[in-house]
Amino acid sequence: MHEPILSVRGLTKTYRGGTRALDAVDLDIRKGEIFALLGPNGAGKTTLIGAVCGLVRPTAGTITAFGQDLASNWRSARARIGLVPQELSTDMFETVWRAVAYSRGLFGKPSDPARLEEILKSLSLWDRKDAQIRALSGGMKRRVLIAKALAHDPELLFLDEPTAGVDVELRKGMWEQIAALKQRGVTIILTTHYIQEAEEMADRVGIIQRGRIRMVDEKRAMMERLGTTEAVIDLAQPMTAIPASLGAYALELADGGRRLIYRGGNGEGKGRAAVAQLAQQLTRDGITFTSLDIHDSSLEDIFVGLLGAQGEPA
User: Fold this and answer.
1) CATH number for position 252
2) Taking the mean position of all CA atoms in its chain, how far away is CA 27?
3) Which residues pair with 293 in a beta bridge?
4) Which keywords has UniProt assigned to this entry (predicted)?
């Protein structure tokens, strides 16, 4: 197992007044992965990012990045980390080019106009390079934040709600940019309210709630273990009771006996296989049905279910 690019141990942040934003968080991030950190508002996502990026001073715990303790090697490690913040915090009267060039110089990188041109073109900002940031749309401003974060070629990139307030078309364009960054070897930690983003892109998913990491797993493994399949079967003739021959399936009758509902298995195969066997059994029993609709759990279904089980709405 390779040494993680980022390792957090016992990270705690208690604010004056007693609010505990992070509660003994342990987390390892693997080099080259896209890691999605999910949680409701106030769960601690932004505080965790702020602690790694030097914006929040932890109350306790250690952070190791690139094999270096951030407490004693903060400047050299921070120069290898990029952050796209949630808030649109930049000089609105600055031009796109100057803002991005300044960010590169801020981390001690030599001037490289060709590299900045490459970054701006990749984000469809090149034709707006001389525009003041205040003149850009919300989506374009967010792209400028990404360009600024990429200007010093970070190896570890934090994206805190990168597509908040961005329309669907721009959001998909940013997903493509994130995938391209991964191809270049950049490790990406993403927080998002759009759980579809995590489902689309993440290799692993972590769920944080009330400052604690509740679960970390491979996205596919999480969906296989916690996902379910639901099948709704509309019957040609209503039933008064479920026949004994169907007793092995997790079934319930609905809509006055005109509908059978199956819930079970998981969303990656077992549930669908059970539904296929159920359909064959119905046919053998001479029970005709007019439609069969199958739905597999999404990552969002799992996320909402987990937080609901913990007693907190998503």
Assistant:
1) 3.30.70
2) 15
3) 232
4) ATP-binding, Nucleotide-binding, Transport
Token pair listed for 77: 């490690």
Q: Which single residue is written with the structure tokens 């300044």?
A: 102
CA distance linking residue 67 with residue 69, whole number of Å: 7
Of 300, 313, 157, the C-alpha closest to 219 is: 300
Chain segment 92-148, per-residue pLDDT in tens: 888 999 999 998 888 888 889 999 999 898 888 899 999 998 888 877 888 888 888
Q: Both tokens of residue 116?
A: 């900045």
Q: Domain limits at 286?
A: 228-296
Burial of 132 (0-12, 13-18, 19+ CB in 10 A): middle
What is the pTM for the complete model shown? 0.74
Q: Are residues 180 and 244 in the same domain?
A: no
User: How does strand 187-191 pair with strand 156-160?
Assistant: parallel
Residues 6+ apart with CB under 8 A from 61: 8, 9, 10, 11, 12, 22, 24, 25
